[in-house]
Write a structure and sequence with these properties.
alpha+beta, Chalcone isomerase, 2 domains, 6 strands, 42% helix
Length: 181
């Protein structure tokens, strides 16, 4: 009798595993699946007045860390309103130049609809794709701005040589395995 019950238990486990198999991919469909095919490049911290605001990590597809597709993950260490994230992004893009006020206003409205308030531990993942940018908060799609000019300007906040955070830019662009001598 125990041989038969062990067999039916094993059969039941097998059937359950077989039924769950199509869902197995979903378990790994977190933020790291969004960067599949990209290699981790550099990381660093952004501080304001000595306080850690967020940690940033860059992933890239090829040998040039400035060319899309690439991904930038910001792990926040402070409470920040979505409005503050949007306003700071617009100010940084304005300081980098090359974008007219009307376009900045349009992008501000789009970012204002996307960016939520964040708390310590929240992660925003931005994907810079050839057709624009996609944003995720803690694995959940926030939305996209399908404009290559926006993506270049937005990711330029961190990657442009004129970035207001040159130390963070250097850390993000530091090739894996390379050290400053």
């Amino acid at each position: 009798m125990s041989c038969i019950s062990n067999l039916s238990i094993a059969r039941r486990h097998f059937c359950l595993a077989l039924a769950a198999w199509p869902l197995a991919g979903w378990a790994s469909a977190g933020p790291d699946s969004r960067i599949a095919g990209l290699q981790r490049w550099g990381s660093g911290e952004f501080r304001r007045f000595g306080f850690l605001v967020y940690e940033a990590t860059l992933w890239v597809a090829g040998e040039d860390p400035l060319l899309p597709p690439l991904a930038l993950r910001l792990t926040y260490r402070r409470n920040i309103s979505g409005r503050s994230i949007t306003d700071a992004s617009v100010a940084e893009m304005r300081n980098l130049g090359g974008v007219d006020s009307a376009r900045l206003m349009q992008w501000s409205e789009q970012m204002g609809r996307l960016f939520p308030d964040v708390r310590p531990g929240d992660e925003i993942l931005g994907l810079h794709l050839p057709e624009g940018a996609r944003f995720y908060l803690n694995e959940r799609l926030l939305g996209a701005i399908e404009d290559p000019a926006f993506a270049r300007a937005f990711f330029g906040i961190w990657l442009d040589p004129r970035s207001s955070a040159p130390e963070l830019r250097s850390a993000l662009l530091r090739r894996p395995g390379k050290r400053d001598d």
